[in-house]
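fold-stage: in
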Amino acid sequence: MKVKVKFFAFLRERVGTGEITKEINEGSTVADLWATLKKDYPKLAPVEMRLLYAVNRNYVNPDYALKESDEVVFVPPVSGG
């Protein structure tokens, strides 16, 4: 199944684009998707901070099961003033 993945801030810089479409296995979770993305984009591998996850504009836990055509956003911590 395919999902749309969006990246923001430094995650976007590390991937080299703000959006991709990713083919994943049926029953994959957000955590599974993140693990796959770290393999596909090695510059994501060092990211060990707490990310927020959103699916279809709703925040979810990493164990959320994805469905066909979901839109997944990985949100890094926001800082600044």
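fold-stage: in (second)
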Amino acid sequence: MFTVIRVMTLLGFLLWNPNIGQAFPDEPAVAETVAQAAEVATESAAPEAAGYDKGDVAWMLVSIAFVLMMTCPGLALFYGGLVRKKNILSVMMQCVFLMGLMSTVWAVVGYSLAFGPPLIAGFDIVGNFDHVLLKGVSPSESQPVDSVTMDQIVVAFQGMFFIITPALICGAFAERMKFSTMAVFSVLWGLLVYCPIAHWVWSSTGWLSEFNEAALAAHESGQDAGFYFPAIDFAGGLVVHISSGISALVCALVLGKRKGFGSVPMPPHNLTYTCIGTGLLWVGWFGFNGGSQVAADGRAVNAVLATHLAASAGVLGWSLAEWIKHGKASILGACSGAVAGLVCITPASGSVTPICGILMGFVAGIFCFGCCTTLKNAFGYDDSLDAFGVHGMGGTLGAILTGLFATRAVTGSSAGLLDGNPGQLTIQLVSVAAAVIFSAVLTYILLQILNAVMGLRVSEEQEVQGLDISQHGEEGYIFQ
């Protein structure tokens, strides 16, 4: 029976297929196939002809998504689990709201201030307004969409940094700052602090920028490059972590301590959230650091591997220090150590080997543990979620260690370095000092102005009630 079925099936196929018995397909069919293949090949080559590679674009789109994920749900959960339960929604609202607010500000004017030509010729502190409303980097009749693809990649990717940096500062004044003041402060801080530092470090004319080709060439050849210090900040040790961490300390000092700080226990209410948030931050950091190469190439791969190993070693460093001091290691310590390692490797990930990443992460875990315990207790400031101890101090450590471990084996010729060049350490120290002083002074001035105009803190009654209810009229935990 099965044999009959197979024979009938074969006969039916022979009768139905018109090409059976022909040695070759018809010539027109061959010509049509070749023409279609040529058309596909032409279409595939179009992006490269327009100045970008599909692989690079794909990697950058993934990196953009990863970095956005770091703010929410990553940072929202990480910070949300560390506050008291009456304030969890306020922390999450800050993260979500800043995603919307800072993205809009970035597109309207922030990108132009960070990456535009100098506002004042010969005084290159901040960009001008050439790219307001994304002028010159948006598709138009004179600029087809393919011709501005990489420009838009930079706008989107750097915009994610513009979101998360002020969100990091929120950890310092958690549980006591007015939501309205937080929003205004974040916008002003982003435009007046973040954008200038980003311009110094990452624009093509910045006085700290590796991308200032004319000044870098003069510097490498030993000629007079003027006031120029080509700092290495691959993914934001200066621009993101030092600026936010130092500003966080200023915020904590100006706002003062939370009611009951030092006398009333204020333990984290849900470390499960913090652990989940840590995992999301860890994964998102692959886009944060790896995407900073703006290409899917070997340096991006090195950055991802160094990033992962630094976070891993950070866990070990903090946990070991905690174990030695307290006799046991905690999940909060392991999570904090991972973030410390990630912060430390951020400026260096595109210029050091993965093994150096392990060393930097391990040292950062121990160093930031000391900053968040011994140093914090000695000075008595109330940095609610240790934004200064982890980001400010971890970023500073990373920027300095970058000057020690950067190597041409990773950077190629773009960094202007020779292995073991002692001059780079001096440059890194100058860049750190500039970022610290500028961030601290501008943040203090902004807070004093806002305190006079709007007030910084919620009332004592609102603080006791919790910011979830007093600022947003909601409760995160309906069943107490």
